[in-house]
């Protein structure tokens, strides 16, 4: 029988008791059916053919790394018996291991090898050369200096992120239990981080009451996060493992809930969550191996984390250390948006598609920073863009620091390409606004030119820089946003209702509300319906004025190295005046 009298889960999941043991009502079951249909219609599930191809690709990669380890074993003079026994094991993690990957998603993979096969030379040089010479492999990009060293490539069109971990064994068995803490004996920190992706995925699946309900809910919320522009660990939002941990905790709070209930409860819980209280699936695990675990009582750096989401496998870490004050603000606003839509869904005022309306980023701010990345060819751009993108979070932090938090920065985790640019090109954008509630002082300025110069200097530290790799940072106003960022090359007007919900205005009237903007006015077709567009206290008061006709040029290599069409990039003095 379905309803509040549903039987509770047989055991407690998580560090606290459930918030509710209630099961679904008939209305909840109907809403879940509609949600499942929406997810299918949205194309979030891969075909059987693609699933079979992924399995084939993983099998090929497994054979490649086994042959690679056997080759190195022979070259190092081990016996023929050792060569015969030599082995490497492939594990998956991330969305593929959790069972929530969609069409075209990459496969996060980990290769575990013996102690005598190392990462720096054997993995990033020998295996790299093997992959380079294979016709099936394209877009090969080694990233040895990443927080978790990785080789990225496509194998017969399937995107692969391949990590490597050398453990303290001469022979790696096929049935290696990666969850056993013994795999961490005598390994370095990068190896621990590489191993923990798989270990965390396994622990997440063990700590949720119902795996299928968890998977459907996570698939839904990952799609929502991408549509709302808050899915990106590198930019300072949340990545796959972060969303998985947040969803898993909600599943623990409501062990008998089904997906439609869990999606609604997700927004209800995290709209009210008092950060920086941590989200944890289990108690922090201790061990005698000497690795640092997340503990703000002992580690001063842990006290600075804004949105701690703790991994459940030893050594327990904060998976969301990239979150800044600015990105937490953006996510909090999006949680509130999701919560309001779900409340309306529960009383049949709207339907699921409204929850997944894309966030109108380019209609939400008056001022933006545009970061253009240029290279001579696609391969150089891929490497250069990866480096620059990994540094964009630092620009957000620098702006927060240099303006004492009064100028808020919203990095948007989406790359745009100018098809008219003859060079290989990519662009990222950041929305800028004065902190809400701050008093506006006469003549107050936000001059972030020095901040941008510091960011430029940090980007220039790229060790693999090649001629043609350039970065340009410029200020653009909303009306100057290039048309190539918009679908079909033109701006569209969002409905008043979506605008009002995003700004929290449904059911209330703003005190500073100005004359309403009529929807049918021809002269306003391209204007945002956000209050920022027509109220006198908007961020447009923070004027960012150009020095001259073309404005100030901010280049990663200095003005002497720039040889670009003046119309290709808008360059402005990044000075904000109250």
UniProtKB/TrEMBL annotation:
Cofactor: how bound: Binds 2 magnesium ions. Also active with manganese.
Domain Poly(A) polymerase central: start-end pairs: 213-357
Biased composition (Basic and acidic residues): 505-515, 540-552
Cellular localisation: Nucleus
Origin superkingdom: Eukaryota
Region of interest (Disordered), ranges: 1-20, 503-578
Main location: nucleus
Domain Poly(A) polymerase nucleotidyltransferase: 14-208
GO molecular function: ATP binding; metal ion binding; poly(A) RNA polymerase activity; RNA binding
Catalytic activity line of the entry: RNA(n) + ATP = RNA(n)-3'-adenine ribonucleotide + diphosphate
Residues annotated as binding Mg(2+) 2: 106, 108, 161
Sites where the protein binds Mg(2+) 1: 106, 108
Assigned EC number: 2.7.7.19
GO cellular component assignments: nucleus
Residue ranges annotated for the Poly(A) polymerase RNA-binding domain, each copy included: 361-417
Family designation: Belongs to the poly(A) polymerase family.
Full protein name: Poly(A) polymerase
Native source organism of the sequence: Lactuca virosa
